[in-house]
Amino acid sequence: MPYILIILGLVFLVYVISRLIRQSNSPKLTLLFRYGGAVVLGGLAFLILIRGNVAVAAILGGLAFFSAQGGLWRFMVSSRPSKASTQALGRMTKDEALSILDLTGRPSRAEIKEAHHKLMMKMHPDQGGSDYFATKLNQARDILLEEID
C-alpha cells in the first residue's frame, strides 16, 4: 500500500511539473524532464523489483520507457478543449476564417484543407503551438467548409 501512495504522489508531482514546463515552452527543459523522469522512474522500478514487487516494478518500468520515448510527456501535457471553452470563443465570421487560414475569395474544399493542414503543422500543441490557436484554426476550417456544403 505505501508503494501505491508513493506512485500516486509521484504521478501528481510529475503532472504539476509538466504543466509548469509546458508554460515555459523550453525544448531543452522538456528533454531534461523527459529523460530525467525516465531515469527516476527506472531507478524506482529497479528498487521495487529488488524488494520483490514485480507488478509495481513493471508499471514503473513501462512508465520509464514511455517517458524516454516522449509518449508519457505528450500524455501529461495534452489537453483537449472542452465544448464549453470552444463555445466561449464565439462564432467567427467568414472573413475572419479566411484571414486565419490566409485564404482569399472563394477557396475550394482542397484549398481549405491544405491551408488548414499547413498551418496546423506549425500551430499544433504537440509542435509547440497553443491549444487556443489550434482551436481557432479548426473553427476557421469548419466555418469555411460549412459554407461550401
Key terms for this structure?
mainly alpha, Helix Hairpins, 149 residues, 0% strand
Radius of gyration: 21 Å
Number of discrete domains = 2
What's the tally of helices?
A: 8
Class by alpha and beta content: mainly alpha
Task: Write a short abstract of this structure.
It is built from eight helices and no strands. It has 149 residues and is mainly α.
Question: Can you characterise this structure?
Answer:
- With 149 residues, the chain is mostly helical.
- The chain has two domains: 2-77; 83-148, Orthogonal Bundle (Helix Hairpins), CATH 1.10.287.110.
- It contains eight helices and no strands.
- The chain has helices at 2-24, 27-51, 54-69, 71-77, 83-88, 94-100, 109-123, 131-148.
- It is elongated.
- The termini are far apart.
- Mean pLDDT is 79; it is low at 81-89.
- One of its GO terms (cellular component) is membrane.
Secondary-structure topology with pairs:
Blueprint: H1 2-24, H2 27-51, H3 54-69, H4 71-77, H5 83-88, H6 94-100, H7 109-123, H8 131-148
Helix pairs in contact: 1-2, 2-3, 6-8, 7-8
